[in-house]
UniProtKB/TrEMBL annotation:
Recorded family membership: Belongs to the amino acid-polyamine-organocation (APC) superfamily. Amino acid transporter (AAT) (TC 2.A.3.1) family.
One of the GO BP terms on file: transmembrane transport
Protein name: Amino acid permease
Superkingdom, taxonomy of origin: Bacteria
Organism listed in the record: Castellaniella ginsengisoli
Coiled-coil regions listed in the entry: none
Length: 461
């Protein structure tokens, strides 16, 4: 198994183990409950109708299995960088390079997607305020927060995620009351009265998985936090087991209420469908409260993305797969160079929002989903190698039904990419995949060239 290359000079300071179990659970929840649910739900509902409930059950099962693979590895070896580290150690240099840089790109794209809709939520109150200015303000604020210390990040994300969860529970309860009263046409019959539970058939159900799976992106943050968890062998298994059923309850509960409150075929894509529906049901304060919640949800996911990217670049630098500057930590043990570089790259969305104020979310979402599929596939495949390497050991948190669940997930992910070719908005992202993988391989070969040259000359840094 390869080991990270030696680093000259003093060893870099380690990341601080300051994240508690409650932080880790909320970070994973916060990373997954965001724009994909509050804004992207409209696109998936148009594809599958009330069957969106079944779409989230299918997607949730696949993500749970993938999280169990990641949880097994992260509990056994709690390190920063998670799957990039495991890919590097158990598969080789290029696998680690690909996993790390692809995940970094994924979360840059997720961050862009979140920032791209911030303007829509702000425009609910300030119609004339430019979307790019809203995105820039959030970018600067979140970057500053992530430069302070990891405990403050964990605490801020805990409360941002708590706000989202409390709001979703409140919405489910309030929606249930409205459905029981039949207010504004709300009725359980909306689940089947407008073309049936699956109005577009099995084909619509399958296509909806493309948008639905974007919503589950962010759950992998459980693995990223392992390097800064104070008790990873206790907190990681608890987080994996608790997070997934909570996400399913929140997603399925919220969406069931949503499609029962209002006919699915009248849910638009201009702003959050949750805000629009409560507006049209005539509840005075609910739209403003919900708009504040969905705005905080987008900020929360972006906050998680900034955290993730700084740690992934740190891990890549440890492997020798990224410039050594990303090993630099502040006095509070924050990888400031990785945070600032990621923030600068995310700044591109401010320009996109300025040039293309409409439609930026779906374009970015498509590429992010393709990148997420690569990340999930690498987790599944690396876990197969990890398990073989630990065949004679007692595992702390073994994944169920190995290796058959691995093969099931591989088939699901291949099918997901195939389905992306069937939607006009996501098809270009599939065509970009081979180009992106080729660029990563070229980058890896160029990164290796100086190392080979030094080896031949008998010199080192």
């Amino acid at each position: 198994m390869p080991t990270p290359p030696p680093v000259s000079g003093a060893a870099p300071a380690a990341l601080a183990r300051s994240l508690k179990n409650r932080h880790i659970q909320m970070i994973a929840l916060g990373g997954a409950i965001g724009t994909g649910l509050f804004y992207g739900a409209a696109a998936s509902i148009q594809l599958v109708g009330p069957g969106i409930i079944l779409s989230y059950l299918i997607g949730g099962l696949a993500i749970y299995l993938i999280l169990r693979f990641l949880g097994e590895m992260s509990t056994q070896e709690p390190v920063s960088g998670a799957f990039s580290h495991f890919a590097y150690r158990y598969w080789g240099g290029f696998a680690g390079f690909l996993s790390g840089w692809n995940y970094w790109l994924l979360y840059v794209l997720v961050s862009m997607a979140e920032l791209s809709v911030v303007g829509l939520y702000v425009n609910y109150w300030l119609p004339d305020f430019p979307a790019w200015a809203s995105a820039l303000a959030v970018l600067l604020a979140v970057t500053s927060l992530n430069l302070l210390n990891v405990r403050l990040y964990g605490e801020s994300e805990f409360w941002l995620a708590f706000i989202k969860i409390a709001a979703i529970i409140g919405m489910i309860l309030l929606g249930g009351v409205l459905i029981a009263r039949g207010a504004g046409g709300a009725s359980v019959s909306n689940l089947w009265a407008h073309g049936g539970f699956l109005p577009n058939g099995a084909h619509g159900l399958l296509l909806s998985l493309v948008v639905v799976m974007f919503s589950f992106g962010g759950t992998e943050l459980i693995g990223i936090t392992a390097g800064e968890a104070d008790d990873p062998r206790r907190s990681i298994p608890r987080a994996v087991n608790q997070v997934i059923w909570r996400i399913l309850i929140f997603y399925i509960g919220a969406l069931a209420v949503l499609v029962a409150l209002y006919p699915w075929n009248e849910v638009g894509s201009h702003g959050s469908p949750f805000v629009l529906i409560f507006s049209r049901l005539g509840i005075p304060a609910a739209p403003d409260i919900l708009n504040l919640v969905v705005l905080s949800a987008a900020i929360s996911v972006y906050n998680s993305g900034m955290y993730s990217n700084g740690r992934m670049l740190y891990s890549l630098a440890e492997q020798g797969n990224a410039p050594r500057i990303f090993l630099r930590l502040s006095r509070r043990q924050v990888p400031w160079a990785g945070v600032l570089f990621s923030s600068a790259c995310t700044l591109l969305i401010v320009i996109v929002n300025f040039l293309v104020p409409e439609g930026a979310f779906m374009r970015i979402m498509a590429v992010a989903t393709a990148a997420a599929a690569i990340t999930w596939m690498m987790i599944v495949l690396v876990h197969l190698r990890f398990r073989k390497a630990h065949a004679r050991e007692t595992l702390w948190f073994p994944a169920p039904f190995y290796p058959w669940t691995n093969y099931l997930c591989v088939a699901f992910l291949v099918g997901l990419v195939g389905l992306m070719t069937q939607l006009e908005s996501t098809r270009p992202a599939v065509y970009v995949l081979p180009v992106w993988l080729g660029a990563l391989y070229l980058g890896y070969r160029l990164r290796q060239r100086p190392v080979h040259a030094e080896s031949a000359g008998g010199s080192s840094h």
